């Protein structure tokens, strides 16, 4: 487990609440979360009052808080799984750690509790190496280094802006995979963090991520929403779209993205077979979306993250908007988000 | 540990012998190697007779065998660490597994002996996924799969041509790193195999590799030789150059390269501080070589591996040959190698 020297005031933990009773969830996380400030966003569709146990420093936001802050014309951006993006918007901290409310702390191969915050912040505070792949994984980790042949001029690395954690037990398969292999669980704890190379695209999952909000904040954008987006991860692709935007922007600006540790333990939720129809829509979209993000190039003039999101929105509108109106709406959402970041956020 | 269904006749194990007495080395490997044919190449500088224990099906080649097969004008290609390439050349098997003679079998996290052949062949027999990164590593491994958002059209993958294994104990640091951190050992067994994404370059180490000779053979080329190349890995860069050639060719032809399992256990050998001067030369070269391989693009007309090596040699000669004569000699070696592959090899 990496040990990062963390200032409590540098971190906001953002939780989107799909269940009103967060008692069991938060009590499990208490050893890890209690020293940090929590931003809890209540799913706008959730009727009951939130139940939050004692011992946490938190601020909870409801639909009316969202409406008040962003205006009712923008509040649709923050429904369902995208409600957490409201937390990203209002945070003023350097780092955001965000974990789904169906996840609990995992244990490593030695049986020790994984400190998800410490590992994410260590990933973000140490450099990333997107321009040459280190075969022994993260060279900045204790006991690791650059392997023979790694150019010295690339060994100082670049700033890491996004850290993508993984999942034990219920892995982030899509609904068809989970439906075909209902008993399949991920039990392999891979003790590694790696920088995803520049120009390589990946499916970023929003289940367990952290980012440097000051470096990359506006790129974590709520944009692509499926018509039938539901309350299970496999019914959504908002995080996949957002992750590819963020990766393209990191590549363009010379920032790094890491993947691997820390793990969380994901619990059972939902029925994959019932979700098949909804997910099918998202799966089909990926066939167009992935080649698009693999080939899109931002103009040199885009020098800030906000610039990059605006440019990306323009290109999405132009190249994908005509294919399918959903992409056009994603582009509109990206434009609206950048405006909000500048007015409501810290942009 | 992956279980590959291996036909003994598909595999040649190639060993370059820098020590005359291979008894201890081969006896340790007996449980894994004894069912396969071994090609043993005696380092041309080694004077004593090879000592090979009973129980192995092998063919040993000496300097005079090399001279006879390739002609004395070409035999300089196969000196020192490059002697193993003679084994690649004369093999007629589909798969080559090559392990340095200072390596012994490793144990995994459960204390089980790692079957290096089985894991390499499993890596080569299952598809690679260079065009989109799977965050849960090799999706074809037992218990693994593609994560949500992975396009279905990319899930059949491409053929894997090169499998790069790793090292426990003495890792493949360069001489300066080892000299600075003399006590540093790699003790982290990372239980993962991943496809190195297309266009990402990496330092391929020749210590523990396997490849599909029918798919990629001529790309494993002995080319860049340091003036002071010695008998320790950290005094060489031939494998780093060869690996970048192979990676560029795989990217061009749509083949995959995997990295990770299997591990071997590397023993102590050499004095890093004494090697610093020799290695310094190789390290300096990497600063030019890496950007070159990152940007080189082969013409569409290069449709076979042989074509690709010839094209690459031409580009090396043109773009790097004027900078430093060593690169020009590397280009000449690549041309000579392709000719040999066609005449002596199975090309």
TrEMBL record, chains A, B:
Subcellular location(s) of the protein: Golgi apparatus
Coiled coil stretches, renumbered: none
GO molecular function: UDP-arabinopyranose mutase activity
Keywords: Cell wall biogenesis/degradation, Golgi apparatus
Cellular component GO terms, alphabetical: cytosol; Golgi apparatus; plasmodesma
Primary localisation category: Golgi
Gene Ontology BP, a term: cell wall organization
Membrane spanning stretches: none
Organism superkingdom: Eukaryota
One Pfam match: RGP
Similarity-based family: Belongs to the RGP family.
UniProt xrefs under PANTHER family: UDP-ARABINOPYRANOSE MUTASE 5-RELATED, UDP-ARABINOSE MUTASE
Protein name per the record: Alpha-1,4-glucan-protein synthase [UDP-forming]
Organism for this UniProt entry: Quillaja saponaria (Soap bark tree)
């Amino acid at each position: 487990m990496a040990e990062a020297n963390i200032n409590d005031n540098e971190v906001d933990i953002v939780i989107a609440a799909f269940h009103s009773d967060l008692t069991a969830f938060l009590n499990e996380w208490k050893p890890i979360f209690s020293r940090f400030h929590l931003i809890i966003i209540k799913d706008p569709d959730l009727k009951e009052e939130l139940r939050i146990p004692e011992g946490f420093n938190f601020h909870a936001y409801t639909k009316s808080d969202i409406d008040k802050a962003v205006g009712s014309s923008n509040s649709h951006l923050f429904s369902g799984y995208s409600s957490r993006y409201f937390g990203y918007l209002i945070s003023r901290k350097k780092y955001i750690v965000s974990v789904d409310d169906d996840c609990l702390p995992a244990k490593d191969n030695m049986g020790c509790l994984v400190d998800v915050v410490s590992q994410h912040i260590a990933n973000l505070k140490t450099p990333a190496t997107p321009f040459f792949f280190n075969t022994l994984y993260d060279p900045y980790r204790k006991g690791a280094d650059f392997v023979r042949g790694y150019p010295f001029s690339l060994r100082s690395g670049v700033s890491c802006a996004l850290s993508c954690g993984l999942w034990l037990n219920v892995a982030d398969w899509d609904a068809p995979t989970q439906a075909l292999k209902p008993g399949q669980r991920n039990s392999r704890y891979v003790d590694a963090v790696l920088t995803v190379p520049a120009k390589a695209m990946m499916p970023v999952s929003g289940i367990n991520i952290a980012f440097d909000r000051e470096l990359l904040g506006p790129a974590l954008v709520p944009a692509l929403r499926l018509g039938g987006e539901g309350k299970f991860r496999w019914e959504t692709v908002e995080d996949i779209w957002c992750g590819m935007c963020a990766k393209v922007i990191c590549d363009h600006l010379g920032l790094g993205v890491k993947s691997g540790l820390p793990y969380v333990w994901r619990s059972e939720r939902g029925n994959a077979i019932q979700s098949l129809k909804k997910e099918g829509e998202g799966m089909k979209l990926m066939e167009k979306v992935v080649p698009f993000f693999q080939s899109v190039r931002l103009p040199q003039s885009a020098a800030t993250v906000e610039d990059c999101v605006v440019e990306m929105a323009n290109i999405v509108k132009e190249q994908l908007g005509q294919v399918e109106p959903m992409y056009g709406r994603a582009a509109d959402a990206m434009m609206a988000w950048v405006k909000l970041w500048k007015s409501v956020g810290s942009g």
